[in-house]
Design goal:
Elements (H helix, E strand, L loop, with lengths): L6 H12 L11 H11 L5 E2 L5 E5 L3 E9 L6 E7 L5 E6 L4 H4 L3 E5 L5 E8 L20 E5 L6 H6 L7 E4 L4 E2 L4 E4 L2 H19 L6 E7 L16 E7 L2 E2 L11 E6 L7 H14 L3 E5 L6 H7 L5 E9 L6 E4 H16 L2
Parallel strand pairs: 3-12, 3-13, 13-17, 14-17, 15-16
Antiparallel strand pairs: 1-2, 2-12, 4-5, 4-9, 6-7, 6-9, 7-8, 10-11, 11-18, 15-17
Length: about 350
């Protein structure tokens, strides 16, 4: 089975959405971009009351509805408090690795639409000054945002319109290498979002319809376990397209698609996971099957919420998950092949 996907389109789509901030719960900037991208493909986006974006494609058989979930939220932070000297303390959104974030550029998004850049650093920020600069644990109590503004007090910061609860996004620093590697924060899960749009483009250009009515969902709460808790009526299968993991005890690598048989909570549906494995074989995918520890997906959330559906998960594997992540276009293409094989049921 042969598929030819538009690699240039995938890269441009990924690069566009990766540079739009969307930390957990912050949908105001990315949703208009998803609407625009869908319209360019001749499709319409709908929303639920949680601001999850949906694209729905008619199938050859609309008596069954399946859902492809690719979460649009990323790790991020919110303003917890402002110190008397104008430094900002944070709370995390999702499983933030503070050591990985040290030295990054961040942006504070105020409720009235203003944006301010800053440096995310440890309070013991210099080996020339602090005895514990190398040893102090990096956590919510030791990390600070230093605004790129001339502020010396809490009142100076508040005068900028910054308040507790304002969202903080992190510069993704996306890079494509000439030999196919992708290095960026938030490959989890914006690479999967870009895969969905690339697949929709492929279907339209080849005059193909999904086997069944297919809903593409882009929720904003996966990183805190809430993204898949609501599922539209009638959905009987939930496929979470999300990152795979790399490390000791895992077979996954950057060049294959990883099929998740079990995550931290439970095994994924036996029949559906077996079907994905068989489809991967038929589609000629390079793939691996793994058990993921300290990991969950929106498919997992949909099951835990009591929805009457089967769930499964697969995706491109990355190094340094929840950090500066890396994968390869081979892994992207194998993910796309399995996604196409599932949607077309061939």
């Amino acid at each position: 089975m042969s598929f030819k996907f538009d690699e240039a389109f995938f890269k441009s789509c990924f690069e566009e959405i990766i540079n739009v901030p969307s930390p957990v719960g912050y949908y105001v900037k990315l949703n208009p971009v998803l609407v625009k991208m869908a319209e360019e493909l001749g499709e319409k986006v709908t929303f639920d009351n949680k601001s999850t974006a949906y694209i729905t494609l008619d199938g050859e058989d609309n008596s069954k509805t399946v859902l492809i979930g690719a979460h649009a939220d990323t790790l991020g932070m919110v303003v917890r408090t402002i110190d008397s000297d104008g430094k900002i303390r944070v709370r995390q959104l999702g499983g933030v690795n503070y050591g990985s974030l040290e030295g990054e550029t961040v942006t504070v998004h105020t409720r009235d639409g203003r944006e301010y850049s800053g440096l995310f650093t440890c309070q013991s920020h210099s080996v020339h000054v602090f005895d514990d600069a190398r040893t102090l644990e990096r956590n919510e109590n030791t990390m600070i945002v230093i605004l790129d503004e001339k502020v010396k007090s809490k009142d100076d910061v508040k005068a900028l319109g910054i308040r507790n609860g304002d969202f903080i996004s992190v510069d993704p620093r996306c890079q494509f290498t000439e030999n196919g590697y992708i290095k960026s924060r938030f490959i989890d899960d914006k690479a999967a979002v870009a895969c969905c749009f690339t697949l929709i483009k492929y279907l339209k250009e080849n005059n193909l319809k999904p086997k069944y009515k297919t809903v593409f969902a882009f929720p904003y709460g996966e990183e805190i376990g809430l993204g898949g808790t609501y599922v539209p009526e009638g959905v009987s299968e939930y496929i979470a397209v999300d990152i795979g993991l790399i490390g000791p005890g895992y077979d996954g690598n950057e060049f294959d698609v990883s099929i998740c048989a079990k995550d931290a909570t439970a095994p994924y549906d036996y029949e559906l996971t077996t079907r994905l494995i068989n489809l991967a074989e038929k589609a000629g995918c390079d793939y691996n099957i793994d058990i993921f520890y300290r990991y969950g997906t929106d498919g997992n959330a949909a099951m835990r919420a009591g929805n009457n559906l089967r769930a499964a998960a697969f995706g491109m594997a990355v190094y340094c998950s929840h950090g500066m992540e890396r994968t390869h276009m081979d892994g992207i293409n194998n993910t796309l092949k399995l996604l196409a094989a599932y949607v077309l049921d061939i």
